[in-house]
Amino acid sequence: MLNIRSRLRYVAVRLLRSTRVAAPAVVLTVALAACGGGGASGANPTSLLSSAKAKLDATSAAHFTLSSTNATTSGGTTITGGSGDLQRPDRLRGALNLVVNGFKADVKIVAIGDAVYAELPFSTKYSKINPASFGLGNPGQLLDPQHGLSSLLSAATGAKVTGQQRINGELVDQVSATVPGSAVPVVPDADPSAPVQVTASIDPGNHELRQVTLTGPFIQAGTQTTFTVTLTSYGENVQISAPAGV
Question: What CATH number does residue 137 fall under?
Answer without folding.
Answer: 2.50.20.20
